[in-house]
Every structure is written in structure tokens, then in C-alpha cells.
Design goal:
The protein is mostly helical. It is built from eleven helices and no strands. It has one domain: Hypothetical protein af1432, CATH 1.10.3210. Helix 2 crosses helix 10, helix 5 runs antiparallel to helix 6 and helix 6 packs across helix 7.
Length: 183
């Protein structure tokens, strides 16, 4: 499925504007990772864009989140590796993250929220005001962006990236779409 059609699909299932922005941010990070890792940029991007497609329906039922999303994607004929990556990104199901796309999505999901939080505490509330040095400092602060699992973000080492490089790729990827994110 082409990206524009995938975005339309996302918006039919997901109405919360902040969750749509989160999905766009994860898509950007996944595309940046694919470029760096020599992977299929469009495939990684689709996994990031659609990873929370079911969230409006499953927000109150973590047991169902990502299971329903994977089913939606399967019904629309998405490749099995994207379907599985979406299913495996919810830690509740304790599914093994086997492939590079699985591992990348696992790390990209929380890093997007972490970087967004770093932008929102700046007076400008802009991604352009965030740099790698400030991200590294905030990463050590357990109280900052508590919902962004540091362990999950640091899992970038499972696919060959040091934390600094991963944070830099994620930040630069999100900065490219700052206007879409309202940041």
C-alpha cells in the first residue's frame, strides 16, 4: 500500500490528533533507521505509521492493543513482517522481536515520545531547539518523560546502534517533519 493510502487508512481508525502526530513521528524515525541500516525505507515507514492504528479502540484494553491492529493490517493485505512488527511492539504480548523491523519499531515507539517531551519543555516548544546533548542529559533523568522506557530506547543496541547515534537519527528524522508534528 502506498504511503498516502496508508495515512488515509490510519485516519479512518485513529481520530486523536496527538496519536496521529505520534504515528507520524514514529514513521519518520523508522524511515531514518531504515536509511541508516540499509533497509526498505517505505516498509519501515509503514510499520511506524500504522503501529497504533487500533489505539482509539483498544486504549482501555492493553490485551487487545496491537492484536487488533495486526488484524486490521492483515485484512488490508499488508506484508507479514509489518503485521508481526505491529503485533510485537506491545510488550503485553511478550512476543519475540525477531527481525530488524521488529526491533527498530520497539525502540522507535518510545523515543518519539521522549524527543517530543524534550521539545515541549523548551521555551520555543520546537524540535529545532533540541540537540543531542540535551537529549543525553534528559535520558539520565528518570523523572523526565517517565512513560518513555529508557530500556526500550536503549534496545537500539540490539540492532547495532549506540544510544547516541540512535537518538541523533531519531531527532534529525523528526526535525525533518517538524511542521507536520506542530513542533
Amino acid at each position: 500500500m502506498e504511503r498516502e493510502k496508508a495515512l488515509e487508512l490510519l485516519k479512518t481508525y485513529l481520530k486523536n490528533e496527538n496519536l496521529i502526530k505520534h504515528s507520524l513521528a514514529v514513521e519518520a524515525v523508522m524511515r531514518g533507521l531504515a536509511e541508516r541500516l540499509g533497509e526498505d525505507v517505505d516498509k519501515f515507514g509503514l510499520a511506524g505509521l500504522l503501529h497504533d492504528i487500533d489505539y482509539d479502540s483498544t486504549a482501555n484494553d492493553p490485551k487487545l492493543h496491537s492484536i487488533l491492529g495486526a488484524q486490521i493490517l492483515e485484512d488490508y493485505g499488508f506484508p507479514e513482517d509489518i503485521v508481526y512488527a505491529v503485533k510485537a511492539h506491545n510488550e503485553y504480548h511478550d512476543l519475540e522481536r525477531k527481525s530488524l523491523i521488529d526491533k527498530a519499531l520497539w525502540a522507535a515507539d518510545p523515543v518519539s515520545g521522549f524527543i517530543t517531551a524534550a521539545a515541549l519543555i523548551k521555551p520555543e516548544k520546537k524540535l529545532s531547539a533540541v540537540d543531542l546533548k540535551s537529549l543525553k542529559k534528559r535520558f539520565k533523568e528518570k523523572a523526565f518523560a517517565k512513560g518513555a522506557s529508557r530500556e526500550q530506547i536503549a534496545s537500539c543496541m540490539e540492532f547495532g546502534l549506540e544510544l547516541d547515534e540512535f537518538l541523533d537519527i531519531a531527532l534529525k528524522s523528526m526535525q525533518k517533519i517538524a511542521d507536520e508534528l506542530g513542533l
